[in-house]
Amino acid sequence: MLRVAVVGSGPSGVYTAQSLVQRDPEVLVDVLDRLPCPYGLVRYGVAPDHEKIKSLQHSLRAVFEHERVRFLGGVRVGADGVPVARLRGLYHAVVYCVGAASDRRLGVPGEELPGSWSATDFVSWYSAHPDAAGGGFVRDVRAAVVVGVGNVAVDVTRMLARDAAELSPTDMPQTALSALSASGVTEIHMVGRRGPSQARFTTKELRELGGLPDTEVVVDETDLASDPAYGDPSGLPAAQRRNVEVLRDWAAAPTRGARRRIRLRFFLRPVELLAVEGRVGAVRLERTAPDGRGGVLGTGRYEDVEAQLVLRSVGYRGVPVEGLPFDAESCTVPHVAGRVVRAGGIAPGEYVAGWIKRGPTGVIGTNRPCAKETATSLLEDAPVLARRTLPDDPLDSLRASGAEPVGWAGWLAIERAEAALGASLGRGVVKLPDWAALRAAAASADRSRAATAPPESTRAATAPTGTARAADQPS
Ligand SMILES: Cc1cc2nc3c(=O)[nH]c(=O)nc-3n(C[C@H](O)[C@H](O)[C@H](O)COP(=O)(O)OP(=O)(O)OC[C@H]3O[C@@H](n4cnc5c(N)ncnc54)[C@H](O)[C@@H]3O)c2cc1C
Ligand SMILES: NC(=O)c1ccc[n+]([C@@H]2O[C@H](COP(=O)([O-])OP(=O)(O)OC[C@H]3O[C@@H](n4cnc5c(N)ncnc54)[C@H](OP(=O)(O)O)[C@@H]3O)[C@@H](O)[C@H]2O)c1
């Protein structure tokens, strides 16, 4: 059998595992994740009010239930975890699918002021990521500026505009629900440095902003007009044309005087975050103009927009895994068709897929062909990789490296604890908000397994044949 470790249980990790076991009956896959919970950004990024996309977890789950796939949560690889070289010694091949966990910076004065956050921080908070920074995002906030016009910017804008009745049925943690329900945010400015035809959001997501209760979208035609495609968008690719058409319709619509306003602004770039009483009070924006080559130039004209909250939604950023090559420019791992490149040559047995391979763009589905390409490279290399003799099941060695793997039973116990928490709050499933709660829930699987396990002497006799792997599952 070819033993493969996939590091990261987000879409690219799951699709890689799926592709490997579907295409080769002689492959065993361990999917490792530093979190005790699987699914990466599908669990900790996709907005809680997008239940349909979140339900993709059900199809990803089927991969973990495959008899040759094993989930090992709570195992960090790299610094403060299992060293890359050690992992490489335990498996015939390792595929890194670690995503892009950090954020890009604006690089303007005032970026570090209290009240200025990356969208990554805000998303992690309302998604109950156990590493999320504490709350306080919307406390005493009347007006917010969201920098960037991608789909994450649309997500965080929408979350700021939703009210309690819409958020309560989601799996959002109780603290975030309480804070957002009590929020007094009435003005949200979403600001793009280029024109409407260059915005990165998709039309479906854009349109959703127009359907929010008690909220109106305000678009000022003067913000759109310097886009060369604004007058006649017919020459644009369909996706951009539809965006421009939606924005034009909103610009032409009369204002309704709703309780909240989402102002979509273009050709404005932040040049400074201004302090009022030690925290963000306004954003200074410079008017830009097209440079004729798809970029923009500053015009030297400025406007200050009041904001007690700034969410910088200007893209995610890959972070290096200690011991793995990293291109600091693109924040990705150098590769050829998914094969990691070390010191100018292919590193046998090391692969990448997903955002750490391509950079932080693309929807969930984009990771499927990306993972398939990597799996193809790995399976082509398999005859050579399989020649190496490995130690027995890597679990003991992982534990010896300090890891305490949470297996599938542990994750199922977390799911049960989240259902129980939701029921106790009169809501549906509610996510556990921190490491302590996740670990306690996962450990409850150990206790219930110990209580129901047959005596040691009968266990070997009752284990069905061919399940050595399942029998060795951690909780
Ligand atoms: C806020 C947000 C919302 C999104 N919403 C949508 C949406 O609605 N629809 C859509 O189609 N796409 C959406 N996307 C895009 C989609 O989430 C990504 O395309 C996809 O998650 C990328 O998959 P990935 O596996 O490369 O990374 P990730 O999903 O980030 O998975 C990486 C995994 O690796 C683990 N990991 C990281 N480092 C280590 C380590 N050192 N050791 C062990 N494990 C590690 C992480 O814990 C994580 O589980 C969204 C993206 C963001 C940022
Ligand atoms: N519902 C969904 O399907 C969904 C939801 C969320 C995310 N996603 C996907 O996840 C991926 C990541 O999304 P994202 O929104 O983080 O990234 P993105 O699509 O790359 O958008 C980033 C935005 O930030 C702007 N920006 C970058 N640097 C800037 C700067 N210094 N100053 C001002 N603006 C700056 C960009 O403008 P420029 O274009 O001018 O650089 C762009 O508007 C995307 O592929 C997205 O589609 C999908």
Q: What fraction, in percent, of the residue positions are helical?
A: 25-40%
Major beta sheet, specifics? 7 strands, mixed
Listed once per kind, the bound small molecules are:
flavin-adenine dinucleotide, NADP nicotinamide-adenine-dinucleotide phosphate
* Average pLDDT, all residues: 93
Give the C-alpha Rg: 24 Å
The rough form would be described as globular
Compute the separation of the termini in Å.
24 Å
Q: In total, how many beta strands?
A: 18
Q: Provide a count of the helices.
A: 19
Beta percentage is 15-25%
Biggest sheet: strand arrangement: 3-2-1-4-18-17-16
Structural class: alpha/beta
3D architecture notes:
The radius of gyration is 24 Å and the shape is globular. Strand 16 (335-336) and strand 17 (339-342) form a beta hairpin. The longest helix has 19 residues, at 367-385. The chain starts with a strand and ends with a helix. The chain is α/β, with parallel strands linked by helices. Residues 455-468 have low confidence and may be disordered. The chain has a seven-stranded mixed sheet, sandwiched between helices. The chain has a six-stranded parallel sheet with strand order 6-14-7-8-10-9. Strands 11-12-13 form a three-stranded antiparallel sheet, with no helix packed on it. The protein is built from 19 helices and 18 strands. The structure holds flavin-adenine dinucleotide and NADP nicotinamide-adenine-dinucleotide phosphate. NADP nicotinamide-adenine-dinucleotide phosphate binds at residues 106, 147-153, 155, 192-194, 198, 200, 205, 269, 313-316, 360-363.
